[in-house]
Specification:
The chain has about 130 residues and is mostly helical. About 80% of the residues lie in helices and about 0% in strands. The protein has one domain (about 1-125). It contains four helices and no strands. The two termini are about 30 Å apart. About 0% of the residues are buried.
Length: about 130
């Protein structure tokens, strides 16, 4: 039974690393496409920069996960905030008041979530398993 658990765990680790590698490669490809698009258009817009920032956040998330084996919940929240900001910038002319307020509300909820999570980490820190 122990050998089966060990084999299953190793399989999951390999699958996890393959998935992270695919995410990293896809992010590199997407960044290359975006940079090529900016080069061909001969202009860089704020939306382009925000998209590149999102790609960098994805890289950081993969890096943190590979380094620590943990995925901070705050990272996807940061990415969501930047993605909403990019959406607002790209579609500003077509947004009605209700949709804009909903998007701003979503950003506020994400920001408050980050604040609560950060407060929880400071107020109730995790203890290392080795010290427990």
């Amino acid at each position: 039974m122990g050998k089966l658990k060990s084999s299953s765990y190793k399989f999951l680790l390999v699958a996890e690393y393959i998935g992270l590698t695919v995410i990293a490669i896809a992010t590199i490809v997407a960044m290359c496409f975006e940079i090529t698009s900016m080069f061909l258009a001969m202009q860089v817009t704020l939306a382009d920069l925000l998209l590149l920032f999102i790609y960098l956040e994805v890289f950081a998330m993969v890096g943190i996960y590979l380094k620590s084996g943990k995925l901070p919940v705050r990272m996807p929240l940061y990415i969501a905030i930047v993605a909403i900001a990019r959406y607002i910038i790209l579609d500003m002319k077509n947004l009605d008041t209700a949709r804009l307020l909903a998007l701003v509300g979503a950003v506020l909820v994400f920001a408050l979530s980050i604040l609560i999570i950060r407060y929880g980490h400071v107020k109730y820190p995790y203890h290392n398993e080795e010290n427990s």
